[in-house]
């Protein structure tokens, strides 16, 4: 048995649930130049299925050249400028009864912009890696004085701390952008916060590149997609009403390498030389096993099938490939599925192999079949666990005039099936949000695997 391990589990700090904010500014901001406010942007079937908000949070150390008031002014101007090439982000979603689809009206109705201050310092908040529900206060999603149909699709917030440090929160409806497009948008936003920089990347707004075929042709089964009993398109995805625990599991690079070496040893013994033993595949297999076994412990049904879904970028998988600067959602879920009793007894190698096969399954024809399935069935991605990886997004590498962030993270929500994997200085962080009993069992199984 391995006795030295470096995994740590971080829980929210109860003392930091209320960050004691005072808001100085809550307003709409508009494109800096005239845009075509009668334009309607086509949304792909993938876009249509992702109607929920994602929150990104950047923390910055104090910078004497950029006090928080200056940051507010510069960022507000940057948002106004970037809303010209990204005019759809100042638009509003409207349900088209004729086509039974959401349309994105580029009507220049505005994006949200907030400025606030906290009575705490960054040091008093403590470890920024902790999955603190209080951080939701740093990424406001709605403006108080607007009706639901008038709410902006994206909101930007600057919050200053008494030490001179500050946070920038960005809330985006996922319909607008996927992770890679979001990274490109943030690079462009940062470029416009400088006084004399052009856009970092020219976005490609042609979402019809991912339109369904006519007529649609479903050539594969798609268990990773669900046709709901009642129509859900056009409605925001709602979170769980259960009380959830939030934890970040810090897996050190030595623990990741230990697991990869363990899988490589199993592969060598089985002469399974084709298995791709990447950090993502191994960590996804680890999460799959621990989530399946923890749910099995609670439900007591080892014959239950547990499906793991994980987002895969499609840009290079299509023929011809999408432009790298494609601006929209070019992701679909890969999946791996098995009974809990098999997930428990199989070696980790088998699970890694199935995770890898799920990614390889996403060929050009498979992707087009999935898009056509969504066209006919008006469904949504679905799995018992849905994993999103930020390992290669590089969100923490975005350079603003005031420098790179001290820390960049996702903000916890109540979408209990979702979990996230993101990098930290020496390893991988895993954010899990589950009911307390299941979270306890997840941690038990995770620890058992790492020290096995």
Automatic annotation (TrEMBL):
GO terms for molecular function: acyltransferase activity, transferring groups other than amino-acyl groups. Pfam families: Transferase. SUPFAM superfamilies: CoA-dependent acyltransferases. It comes from the Eukaryota. Belongs to the plant acyltransferase family. This is Shikimate O-hydroxycinnamoyltransferase-like. It comes from Sesamum indicum (Oriental sesame).
């Amino acid at each position: 048995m391995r006795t030295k391990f470096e995994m740590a589990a971080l829980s929210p700090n109860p003392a930091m649930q209320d960050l004691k904010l005072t808001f100085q500014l809550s307003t709409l901001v508009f494109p800096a130049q005239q845009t075509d406010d009668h334009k309607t942007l086509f949304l792909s079937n993938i876009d249509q299925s992702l109607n929920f908000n994602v929150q990104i949070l950047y923390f910055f150390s104090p910078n004497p050249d950029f006090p928080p008031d200056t940051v507010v002014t510069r960022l507000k101007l940057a948002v106004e400028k970037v809303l010209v090439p990204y005019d759809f982000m100042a638009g509003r979603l409207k349900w088209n009864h004729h086509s039974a689809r959401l349309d994105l009206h580029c009507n220049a109705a505005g994006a949200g912009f907030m400025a606030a201050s906290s009575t705490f310092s960054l040091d008093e908040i403590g470890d920024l890696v902790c999955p603190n529900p209080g951080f939701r206060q740093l990424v406001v999603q709605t403006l108080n004085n607007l009706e639901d149909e008038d709410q902006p699709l994206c909101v930007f917030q600057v919050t200053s701390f008494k030490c001179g440090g500050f946070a920038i929160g960005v809330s985006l409806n996922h319909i607008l952008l996927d992770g890679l497009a979001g990274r490109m948008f943030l690079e462009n936003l940062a470029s416009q916060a400088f006084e004399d920089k052009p856009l970092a990347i020219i976005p490609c707004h042609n979402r019809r590149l991912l339109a369904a075929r006519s007529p649609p042709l479903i050539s594969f089964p798609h268990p990773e997609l669900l046709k709901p009993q009642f129509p859900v398109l056009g409605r925001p995805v709602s979170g769980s009403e259960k009380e959830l625990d939030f934890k970040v599991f810090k897996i050190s690079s030595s623990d990741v390498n230990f697991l990869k070496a363990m899988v490589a040893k199993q592969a060598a013994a089985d002469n399974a030389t084709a298995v791709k033993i990447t950090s993502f595949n191994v960590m996804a297999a680890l999460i799959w096993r621990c989530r399946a076994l923890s749910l099995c412990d609670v439900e007591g049904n080892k014959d239950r099938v547990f499906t793991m879904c994980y987002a895969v970028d499609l840009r290079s998988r299509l023929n011809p490939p999408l432009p790298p600067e494609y601006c929209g959602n070019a992701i679909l879920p890969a999946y791996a599925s098995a009974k809990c009793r098999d997930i428990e007894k199989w070696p980790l190698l088998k699970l890694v192999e199935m995770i890898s096969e799920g990614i390889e399954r996403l060929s050009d024809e498979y992707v087009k079949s999935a898009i056509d399935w969504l066209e006919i069935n008006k469904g949504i991605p679905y799995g018992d666990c849905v994993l999103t990886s930020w390992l290669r997004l590089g969100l923490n590498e975005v350079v603003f005039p005031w420098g790179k962030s001290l820390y960049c993270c996702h903000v916890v929500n109540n979408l209990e099936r979702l979990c996230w994997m993101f990098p930290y200085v020496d390893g991988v962080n895993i954010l899990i949000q589950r009911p307390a009993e299941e979270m306890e069992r997840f941690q038990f199984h995770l620890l058992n695997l790492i020290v096995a």
